[in-house]
Amino acid sequence: MTTREFDGVRLERVREYVWEIPREGEMRVPARVLASEALLEQIGDDRTLQQLKNATQLPGMTKHALCMPDGHQGYGFPVGGVGATDTEHGCISPGAVGYDINCGVRMMRTNLSYDDLQGKEEELVDELFRAIPSGLGGGGVVESGLDTVKSVLERGVDWALEAGYAVEDDLLHCEDEGRRPDADADAVSEKAKNRGKKQLGSLGSGNHFLEVQRVTDVFRSDVADAYGLAEDQIVVLIHCGSRGLGHQVCNDYLRKIEKRHGDLLAQLPDRELAAAPAGSELAESYYRAMCAAINFAWVNRQLVMHRTREVFERVFGRDWEAMEMHLLYDVAHNIAKKEVHDVDGDERELYVHRKGATRAFPAGHPEVPKAYRDVGQPVIIPGSMGAGSYVLRGGEESLSLSFGSTAHGAGRVMSRTRAKKEYWGETVQSELRDQNRIYVKAQSGATVAEEAPGVYKDVDEVVRVSDALGIGDKVARTYPVCNIKG
């Protein structure tokens, strides 16, 4: 089928897995959806396509607005959305980044095998749940004053290294080495800093989690070797972001933009796309505040990893170094970054907004860490707690097709409200344990119900499309063993 229509939004098939919403009306550029027929049916089932079409009206939008294979409806800008705007004549949009700035994932590898873990699953999940703060509100690995928060905001993982919560190798395996140099703590409100000072080193709630996994499949052995991955190996996946601090930064700047740039806001089809014109004082201030929140999130995940290492030491009776618990990679998926991309033969600096999308730079790109530059940037795609996750590498087609981006997860197909009506948390926990040997511990049964495997798209299909398009190549698949949630 060469054309599809969902709720009045028409798409044309450009080629396999690439669907385009042609430019019309107030659209500045076309929009594209990267999806199979099956995924397109799910993407078209909510307001994702209309939100994507709306996003094309942001000033300075370049080439096309994009929806990744895991896309679904968000606030204003769709989750799974990618939009690149010109840094001179465009804009930056907090709504196109999202409230959880630098929500992202990091994977830590170990030299443990699945056999080493069997029989210790319940002890491990209990110890992790006890040691790592989760859920709404306060509580963190480090409860600090405002001076510490300011240092974290400006220095990122450098602060954690100096404070003894990281080793040098951790920085070398983190996006941007765990620090955005444009960060400015003074651009972050006191209210945001106060929200962050009691949450440094915590998972939070919702879809955030820590999961102990085993590697079940290796698809590209040369890349897996470079990443230090092998079948039956135990790895740890951490998914969380900037907590209340990042949420407050987004909220603060949305309100400021509404007051100061109401003329631009009035031109946009959705107030949640609120944007500051490139070069304006507010655009520069938001960028510095966003970079500071990015640093906070990297430190947050670093502290959760530090505490995880301590738990493994207690449970397995060995130093974490002896278990080779090293960071494979940490990558953000709610972010806007100044990047240089080829646009119609010209190199242009753009604000690349990735909201629920992952950077996926190919081999040879200078921003890929030296350890992986010959094979490509690691990309971590979490699935549901019953379906497993994937490690990919940035694909050769990512820069031309998607501004160096791919999916960030499985993507929801069911709202949290509906999920709590469809599933009973305790039943989900029991079935995962008894049928799949997956041990889940959460603050409440409602959290488990909201995150039941059935509320997500098929992560295998999401990754298959990414691999087929060449934007993110399959390297390895992992499967849950233990999972803790807020």
TrEMBL record:
<feature type="binding site">
    <location>
        <begin position="382"/>
        <end position="385"/>
    </location>
    <ligand>
        <name>GMP</name>
    </ligand>
</feature>
<dbReference type="GO" id="GO:0006388">
    <property type="term" value="P:tRNA splicing, via endonucleolytic cleavage and ligation"/>
</dbReference>
<feature type="compositionally biased region" description="Basic and acidic residues">
    <location>
        <begin position="176"/>
        <end position="193"/>
    </location>
</feature>
<dbReference type="Pfam" id="PF01139">
    <property type="entry name" value="RtcB"/>
</dbReference>
<dbReference type="GO" id="GO:0170057">
    <property type="term" value="F:RNA ligase (GTP) activity"/>
</dbReference>
<feature type="binding site">
    <location>
        <begin position="408"/>
        <end position="411"/>
    </location>
    <ligand>
        <name>GMP</name>
    </ligand>
</feature>
<comment type="similarity">
    <text>Belongs to the RtcB family.</text>
</comment>
<feature type="binding site">
    <location>
        <position position="389"/>
    </location>
    <ligand>
        <name>GMP</name>
    </ligand>
</feature>
<feature type="binding site">
    <location>
        <position position="239"/>
    </location>
    <ligand>
        <name>Mn(2+) 2</name>
    </ligand>
</feature>
<feature type="binding site">
    <location>
        <position position="208"/>
    </location>
    <ligand>
        <name>Mn(2+) 1</name>
    </ligand>
</feature>
<keyword id="KW-0464">Manganese</keyword>
<feature type="binding site">
    <location>
        <position position="485"/>
    </location>
    <ligand>
        <name>GMP</name>
    </ligand>
</feature>
<comment type="subunit">
    <text>Monomer.</text>
</comment>
<feature type="active site" description="GMP-histidine intermediate">
    <location>
        <position position="408"/>
    </location>
</feature>
<keyword id="KW-0436">Ligase</keyword>
<feature type="binding site">
    <location>
        <position position="100"/>
    </location>
    <ligand>
        <name>Mn(2+) 1</name>
    </ligand>
</feature>
<feature type="binding site">
    <location>
        <position position="333"/>
    </location>
    <ligand>
        <name>Mn(2+) 2</name>
    </ligand>
</feature>
<comment type="function">
    <text>Essential for tRNA splicing and maturation. Acts by directly joining spliced tRNA halves to mature-sized tRNAs. Joins RNA with 2',3'-cyclic-phosphate or 3'-phosphate ends to RNA with 5'-hydroxy ends.</text>
</comment>
<protein>
    <recommendedName>
        <fullName>tRNA-splicing ligase RtcB</fullName>
        <ecNumber>6.5.1.-</ecNumber>
    </recommendedName>
</protein>
<keyword id="KW-0342">GTP-binding</keyword>
<feature type="binding site">
    <location>
        <begin position="333"/>
        <end position="334"/>
    </location>
    <ligand>
        <name>GMP</name>
    </ligand>
</feature>
<keyword id="KW-0479">Metal-binding</keyword>
<dbReference type="GO" id="GO:0003972">
    <property type="term" value="F:RNA ligase (ATP) activity"/>
</dbReference>
<feature type="binding site">
    <location>
        <begin position="207"/>
        <end position="211"/>
    </location>
    <ligand>
        <name>GMP</name>
    </ligand>
</feature>
<dbReference type="InterPro" id="IPR036025">
    <property type="entry name" value="RtcB-like_sf"/>
</dbReference>
<dbReference type="GO" id="GO:0005525">
    <property type="term" value="F:GTP binding"/>
</dbReference>
<dbReference type="InterPro" id="IPR001233">
    <property type="entry name" value="RtcB"/>
</dbReference>
<keyword id="KW-0547">Nucleotide-binding</keyword>
<feature type="region of interest" description="Disordered">
    <location>
        <begin position="176"/>
        <end position="200"/>
    </location>
</feature>
<dbReference type="GO" id="GO:0046872">
    <property type="term" value="F:metal ion binding"/>
</dbReference>
